[in-house]
Design goal:
This protein is 47% helix and 13% strand. It has 246 residues and is of the alpha+beta class. The protein is globular and about 60 Å long.
């Protein structure tokens, strides 16, 4: 299974900002991810979100389980704390030198419904694995992270060394040219954006795109791969946001 690239190559996946998306973007980029309401009012104003709109959005987000509230301080719920960890891993993936092994997950469970199968596929994709053929997922073993223990209930996990060229295998698993084209489009859009709302919209798209980066060993990547440039641009923006929060 190829990684998801939700837009045409060379196009940025820019989505309109809502009050909810502004609040989440600010909190997901803040450590620890909690802010007093008075700071939120100040921070969302440059994005065109007024105080009454913000307070209505905060109430809905608490009711929906997106946020928790303690007195006048709002923070991410446990579910969204997991999302922040995934986002942090996307921006700062932990890697090691690749020695030729591939992580392999072979699905053994049967009788699962469509929803369960879709959930498992999404989970394996979020682990940066790709599907070689039905039920067989793999990736180079260069990430510093264990596979979740509970995968053992539905799959066999291990490492292997497939025959053939690893470059050809990578080319069949991930649309690297398309990913790179979209990354370059995002970098170009960022360079031409100056309004706070435009930048926040662009960097929300950057995070979504980084979540689909397979984080391959350097020797398996095309020349001029833009992944690190995209991460560096987001890290700079995150530092600027942190200064605004402080």
């Amino acid at each position: 299974m190829r990684m998801n690239v939700s837009v045409q190559p060379g196009e940025a996946d820019l989505r309109p900002l809502s009050a909810r998306s502004v609040v989440l973007s600010l909190l997901l980029g803040t450590h620890p991810p909690e802010l007093p309401v008075k700071d939120l009012v100040r921070l969302v104003e440059p994005f065109g979100v007024g105080g009454s709109t913000l307070r209505a959005a905060l109430s809905r987000m608490v009711a929906a389980g997106d946020l928790r509230r303690t007195d006048a301080v709002y923070g991410l719920s446990d579910r969204l704390l997991n999302r922040q960890r995934r986002q942090d891993d996307a921006v700062h993936p932990r890697t090691r030198a690749w020695e030729g092994d591939w992580e392999t997950v072979v699905i053994t469970a049967t009788g699962r419904g469509p929803a369960e199968r879709a959930e498992l596929r999404a989970r394996l994709t979020s682990l940066r694995l790709a599907e070689l053929r039905e039920g067989v997922w793999l990736r180079p073993a260069n990430l510093v992270r264990p596979l979740p223990d509970d995968l053992g209930r539905v799959a066999l996990t291990g490492t292997t060394r497939p025959d053939g060229s690893p470059l050809e295998l990578v080319a069949g698993l991930w649309p690297l040219d398309a990913w790179a084209a979209t990354a370059r489009a995002l970098l170009a859009h960022i360079a031409g954006s100056h309004r706070p709302a435009d930048l926040l919209t662009a960097f929300a798209a950057v995070v979504r795109h980084l979540l689909t980066d397979p984080v391959l060993p350097p020797g398996l990547l095309p020349a001029d791969w833009p992944g690190e440039a995209l991460r560096a641009a987001y890290a700079d923006y995150q530092r600027e946001l942190s200064r605004s929060v402080r």
